[in-house]
Amino acid sequence: MVVRAILSDLVAEEQSLDQFLQRINPRAWQKTTVHHGWSIQGVVSHLADSEDYAHNALGEGGSRLSDIESFGSMAALNEAGIAKGAGMRPQDAIEWWRGARAKVVEELSRRKADDRVPWFYGDMSAKSFATARLMETWAHGLDLYAAVGEEPEDTIRLRHIAWLAWAMLPHAFGEAGLDYPEPVRLEVLGPQYSKWVFGPEDSGQVIKAQAGEWCRVAVHRLGLAEAGTIKTTGALAEQAVKVVRAHL
């Protein structure tokens, strides 16, 4: 089965953001978020639409993933999802997201960690897929909190996002047109005095950081220049923190 801790933390992350949304005044739902310029309503609609696609990938063989070809780009596909929720009441948008995410969790609960799941730019393991759902919820949650002038409290659920960002370094280097000749070692400090380490112990390429900053840089919500705790040893590690991306 999929690693239970991931599904448990995925549900916890979604419920935490859901509770936050419940206390936002509906009049504030048209506030603009910084990252994409979407409204709060738009971000929630995007999350719901993304979960619909995720359920299709898990339960229906990914028959809708070819939609990206019709729209021409992921950006256009995302805008179409936002348009679906544009006329909804805030509570209806939340209910759309709740229903869609519940179906995804149900499907993931029946998968083994290494089962392959189709997605827009290639398939991935069920473990990575579940972690990516958590990452997207958390990253867009940052946007929603910022839109109303708040900052969420970091939790130990960040360990999944920290791992995903590290695991996707080969992809990130490839997207940047660079070689990734050896694994970088990542050492991050999380909440509750947690320490998470990924990569070979004897590596001469090392990244050290607070987990919250590493994850925010990885989802492109914090610039590297503003991430004061990120330290690197080795040229490859230095390049890694410049190209890291926890998303496709």
Stated plainly, the CATH topology of the largest domain is called Four Helix Bundle (Hemerythrin (Met), subunit A)
Mean pLDDT level: 96
Residue share in β-strands: 5-15%
Alpha-carbon Rg, integer: 18 Å
Structural class: alpha+beta
What would CATH call the homologous superfamily of the largest domain? dinb family like domain
What string, H for helix and E for strand, traces the elements in order? Answer: HHHHHEEHHHEEEHEH
**Helix content estimate:** 40-55%
Strand order of the largest sheet: 4-3-5-6
Instruction: Give the number of domains.
Output: 2
Label the overall shape. Answer: globular
CATH structural architecture of the largest domain = Up-down Bundle
Can you walk me through this structure?
- The protein is α+β, with helices and mostly antiparallel strands.
- The protein folds into two domains: 4-147, Four Helix Bundle (Hemerythrin (Met), subunit A) (Up-down Bundle); 158-243, Nonspecific Lipid-transfer Protein, Chain A.
- It has helices at 4-22, 40-59, 67-71, 74-84, 90-108, 126-147, 158-167, 169-175, 211-218, 235-243; strands at 116-117, 124-125, 185-190, 194-198, 206-210, 231-233.
- Strand 3 (185-190) and strand 4 (194-198) form a beta hairpin.
- The longest helix is centred in the middle third of the chain and has 22 residues, at 126-147.
